[in-house]
Design a protein that fits this description.
This protein has 338 residues and is of the alpha/beta class. It folds into 2 domains: 264 residues, Rossmann fold; 50 residues. It is built from 7 helices and 9 strands; from the N terminus they run αβαβαββαβββαββαα. Strands 1, 2, 3, 4, 5, 6, 7, 8 and 9 form a 9-stranded mixed sheet that branches. β1, α2 and β2 form a beta-alpha-beta unit. The protein is globular and about 100 Å long.
Length: 338
Amino acid sequence: MTQLPLPPLELRELVGPTDPSYFENATGEPIYAGLPTEQWRSYLDFGCGCGRSARRLLQQTPRPERYVGFDLHAGMVRWCQENLATDGFEFHHHDVYNPGFNPDPHKPWVQPFPVADRTVSIIEAWSVFTHLLEAQAEHYLDEVARVLTDDGLLIGTVFVFDKAAFPFMQDSQNTLYINETDPTNAVVFDRGWLSNGLTERGLELVHVEPPAIRGYHHQVRIGRVGQGRTAVDWPADDAPYGRLAPPLVRAGAERIGLDDHVPEAAEVHVRAPMPPTDLLLPQYDAAQARVAELEGEVATLRTRVRKLRKRVRRLEAEPGAERLEQRVGESVSDGAVR
């Protein structure tokens, strides 16, 4: 097999570990253990970044029959399209708002997954739900439930906490944030809220691996209810304390991979806008504006119709109108009207 290109360092620095070994799969073993061969039919890489999983899957046996990767960072997606796209492997820009990687506030906060209903046997969401706000997470859990096959699995990571330890939180508050200027920097969900959200969508936890550092992400596998799997609960987090901070966001990070200039790493201290309570509100407002526009066009047409009717009545009242009508009728019957 031809040696696959390695993503440039400036792209690897945006997603976490930069050592080339994290992008290699020299043995060709499945990148996630314990899955039957048929599980690898269709692979959806939610937050594919600069192709860490895609590159390893291209070296894997069995290789997924279809792989779809998508990410909100345009430069990383472009690199993947130019270097890793091949038969059965495709990459898409998920053009949604993010304070650091896609900072145009006019962009939508959510989009549908770029695949049809019940067509995906594996969804990878590694270090994705750890950066989604509560309303975004709800939308994307809906999407998970929409696209998973009956035997499908979501494999990903989440930060969780126990809301019972925070008695001052309202019933509607189920998330903790670490960064007031960019809440997506790291998002921690109440485990009860998350479990209830899965149940409401016909999903369940089928595997949870606790963190190696206390309070860090749990590795989870989520599937549809009623597929013969055994549901599990959240294990105790009794790992030793440690520290593993996410990468610093670079000012201008959204241009890396699109421009030659690579900015220095620095925290961005620009307060990010918060999403509307209903993430579909912008689309609803646009639809309402279009309805108002159409109503204006209808009103204009009604005015024209009223004027035409008045004109017809005036013509009908003029002398000779009856004879004119008779002559028109005769012409029509003779086929003389052109």
